[in-house]
Amino acid sequence: MAAKATWTRSELALLWLLCSAQFVLIVDVVVVNIAVPSIRSELDVPVSFLQLTSVAYTVAFGSLLIVAGRAGDLFGRRKVLITGLVVFTAMSLVCGLSQEGWQLFAARAGQGVGAAMISPNAMALLVSGFREGELRNRALGIWAAVGSAGAIAGQLLGGVVTEYIGWRGIFLINVPIGVLVGVAAVRLLPDGTGPRRSPNEPAERLDVPGAILLAVTLGGASVLLADISGGESWLLVTGLLVLALLALALVMTERRSVDPVLPGALLARRNVAVANLVLMLNASATTSALYFTTLTMQTEMGYGALQTGLGFAPVTAVVLAISPKAGALVQRLGARKLLLVGSCVSAVGLLVLVFTATSNGNYWSGILPGLILVAAGNGLSYAPTFSLATTVPEKEHGRASGLINTAQELGSASGLAVLASIAALGALGGLGDFSLGYLAAACAALCAGLLTFAAPKPEPAPETGQDTTEPLAARKGEATEEM
């Protein structure tokens, strides 16, 4: 029987450093939601502009992930990540000290820029920090679990901090955390953490026109999706036309570029394309289901905001328990099988919610069983998805990491826009009747499962072009210890 793979101390330090950075970023996506009423009251922000508190962050974050990942590939991931930490921490301080609404919105956008510099490069450093195989898959499972935990922790933390410290505390708490993580990054991340190139290999440059067009196109898509259900029809049509023109300009620019920021060769890889499509579908299904469940618990079952937030704690516990185990199972069962099982389990959980998450039900029998299945499915799916998406040459890790993170962001936004509209059509029985929405989400998860059949079968890594560089943490050659 083969010995179980073990971690070195430097690998453990690298893993927890990068996961800590990602945790803070994901928390900041949702932590502000509960604090919105307090922000409105103190800064006298009009209701029509309140959504900018969240949208400014998510649009800047989602639109720059691929560009920032590519910048890390070219200029060094350590350098870009640490710069992002400085930007994120400084903008968090500005958020906490804001005296006007526009100051808060601008600082939130700045936070998003810093977050976009951190997330794809942290994931790329994690992928390149572990040899392809069990240890990398386990690391990706922990990464996924920490990200999911951050989303739920954001809801709980937002309520507690806003209640006892005030809304400024949810931003100011990032300052000492950002400083600690930044110091740890300087000490633990070795220099030269970008990809290694041979002396004869030509130097690559950032495709600036393509980067700008890509960021603007993704940002426009995010804004359009955020307002698709409540905007005027003529604004929607105009927005779609502008977005189509931007996308056309992006394609033409990238086709002429010697080194495009998003090359067709990367998207043409079946493992990358399938992983991104699967994550978009699963993210759209899960985000929409959590949204429907939140409204059902508060408007139909009478739970308060804090009770509702606590109701999602089991979801976090299940994902935290399963994701690391799923990372280890990828090596034994294969990413395709595990991804198929995870998507189908999520679909079953969503089908359960179709019949149980009603105004006549309660949390323990109507909400929890379905949520547990959805959480289990997600826990099984994350690690194989990230494993497929990042099985690319080492010099492409940053770009591939940015792409898969963008797919998750766009999947969540598009799913919420589309599936919420579908749910509204079927909500004839009242606001809390989201059965049609849950059904549509189940179909999305099932489609994600079917897409796994298009993923390539595992093949031995070729002699060149794959992960030929020695993992970052392994270069120090430290003694091993069990996780």
Query: What does the overall shape look like?
Result: globular
In percent, how helical is the residue content? over 70%
- CATH fold category name of the largest domain: Growth Hormone, Chain: A
Topology pattern, helix = H, strand = E: EHHHHHHHHHHHHHHHHHHE
Largest sheet: 2 strands, antiparallel
Strand order of the largest sheet: 1-2
CATH level-two architecture of the largest domain? Up-down Bundle
Question: How many domains make up the coordinates?
Answer: 2
Q: Measured on Cα atoms, how large is the radius of gyration?
A: 22 Å
What is the terminal separation in angstroms? 19 Å
In total, the number of strands is 2
Structural class: mainly alpha
CATH class of the largest domain: Mainly Alpha
Mean pLDDT: 82
Name given to the CATH homologous superfamily of the largest domain: MFS general substrate transporter like domains
Low-confidence segments, given as residue ranges, are 460-470, 474-483
Specify the number of helices.
18
Beta content: under 5%
What does this structure look like?
The protein has 483 residues and is mainly alpha-helical. The protein has 2 domains: 8-195, MFS general substrate transporter like domains (Growth Hormone, Chain: A), CATH 1.20.1250.20; 267-458, MFS general substrate transporter like domains (Growth Hormone, Chain: A, Up-down Bundle), CATH 1.20.1250. Helix content is 74%, strand content 1%. It contains 18 helices and 2 strands. The protein has helices at 9-30, 36-43, 52-75, 77-97, 101-128, 134-164, 169-172, 174-188, 208-226, 233-256, 264-268, 270-300, 305-311, 313-333, 335-356, 363-389, 397-426, 435-451; strands at residues 7-8, 480-481. The chain has a two-stranded antiparallel sheet with strand order 1-2. The longest helix is centred in the first third of the chain and has 31 residues, at 134-164. The model is unreliable at 460-470 and 474-483 (pLDDT under 50).
